[in-house]
Amino acid sequence: MIADTPGLMDEIRSRFAHVETCPFEGRRIFFENAGGALHLKSVVETSAFHAAIPDNPGRVNAAGTRLQQIIETGKADMRLFFNAQDGRVFVGESGTELLFRLVRAAALGTEAGGAMIGSTLEHPATASARARWAGITGRAVIEVPHDDATGTVGVEAYRAHLTPDIRVATILHTSPVTGMAVDVAAIAAAIREVAPAALIVVDGIQHASHGAVDVAALGVDGYAVSPYKMFARHGYGVAWASDRLGACAKDNLAGGPAENWELGTRDAGAYATFSDVVSYLDWLGGQVCDSPDRRARLEAAGRAIAAQEGRLARAVIGGTGNLPGLGAMAGITLIGGNRVEGREGVVSFRAAGRDSPALVEHLRQNGIRVHTRKADHYSGNVLVPLGMTDCVRLSFSHYNTEAEVARFLSVMQALTG
């Protein structure tokens, strides 16, 4: 959709800062989007504007009134982005911090006893929170093993471990290491069949910039994202919690609203920059569909993004022009195999006989920004079972091009022969 529409890619790239150049290193191709996507120029401008305002939202003056309106607009845009039919949306320190809060509220707010379940694919944002609060509440932890070969975890793997006494479940929407998506809706439905009272929390941090989010269709209770990975900026996270999860006891000011998830004065700039992201997705959706409905345009943007990134994944793995892809290069092991279907913005690989940090540095010297993932507390759950100490992660977004992929493959071809 995007690459096939004349001029659209140029229009898309014009809306982002530092598309082709790093302010510190000069020209480079940015394939480190899973570590933090490019920022919209509108986000940069909005952030600067709000950083200079001294007033608090809600005060009885023009500034306070306008800031409160910006927050309310931001909340409406967040609800639209999540397709939230109930519950509340709110901001926090980061996506990881919000996932800890959601898991904590679920663990403390459900019936005593039972178990908490998640998979070995998960980022520590949910895995560590699950382990911590299972220990505090005296619950067993059920870990569903992911498939090393495919880099994901399926509904049947979850189904084999489900019991009626599950109180809390966590699901990773997309792995930031393997890049493979998980069928959240199917897993959530399977959990509901066996343990209907369970509260289900989803880590959507990697998925959010690669396709539409629809919590109503997923049938879950909590979902968190990190805006800096979806074209906004660092410094905050955004979450949605269902009415059922919101009814659980949580940190509140004494005498304050019991349904309130937020503590302290809010940064109106966080809400405003999320509105910038939603406005961009609305614009993009309008380029590829003619629906008058704003949510339909967001969904169309998600499909267009997924289609463009699928095209890039096929080029990275299968090659482009006369350049072979990573899947055909000698000594290259692709994490999660050579599948394109289900892959969202990430291709991680290991080159035989080559130190991954050294390869990342070589690519940097050739103007290509990628990243090393090590078998540490972030990625060891994926790499250790594969017998790997590290790997190279190439991560792309819809504003990347096949020409950029071709440049990466040419450098890799020269290395691998």
SSE topology sketch:
Blueprint: H1 8-14, E1 21-22, E2 26-27, E3 29-30, H2 41-51, H3 62-82, E4 88-92, H4 95-109, E5 115-119, H5 124-137, E6 140-144, H6 155-159, E7 166-172, H7 184-194, E8 199-203, H8 215-218, E9 222-225, E10 237-241, H9 243-246, H10 268-288, H11 294-318, E11 332-334, E12 346-351, H12 356-365, E13 368-369, E14 371-374, H13 380-383, E15 390-395, H14 402-416
Parallel strand pairs: 3-13, 5-6, 5-7, 7-8, 8-9
Antiparallel strand pairs: 1-2, 4-10, 9-10, 11-12, 12-15, 14-15
List keywords for this structure.
Aspartate Aminotransferase, domain 1; 2 domains; four-stranded antiparallel beta sheet; 417 residues
Description:
- By secondary structure, the protein is of the alpha/beta class.
- Helices cover 40% and strands 15% of the residues.
- The strands form four sheets. It has a seven-stranded mixed β-sheet, with helices on both faces.
- The protein contains 14 helices and 15 strands.
- The relative contact order is 0.16.
- The mean pLDDT is 96.
- It has two domains: 156 residues, Aspartate Aminotransferase, domain 1 (Alpha-Beta Complex); 233 residues, Aspartate Aminotransferase, domain 2 (3-Layer(aba) Sandwich).
CATH homologous superfamily of the largest domain?
A: Type I PLP-dependent aspartate aminotransferase-like (Major domain)
Nearest-angstrom radius of gyration?
22 Å
Q: Helix tally?
A: 14
Name the poorly predicted regions.
Answer: none
Average pLDDT value? 96
Q: Strand share of the residues?
A: 15-25%
Structural class: alpha/beta
CATH topology of the largest domain: Aspartate Aminotransferase, domain 2
Integer count of domains: 2
Q: Which term fits the overall shape? A: globular
Helix content: 40-55%
The level 1 CATH classification of the largest domain is Alpha Beta
N-end to C-end Cα span: 34 Å
Within the largest sheet, what's the order of strands?
A: 4-10-9-8-7-5-6
Largest sheet: 7 strands, mixed
**CATH architecture grouping of the largest domain:** 3-Layer(aba) Sandwich
Beta strands, count:
15
Order of helices and strands: HEEEHHEHEHEHEHEHEEHHHEEHEEHEH
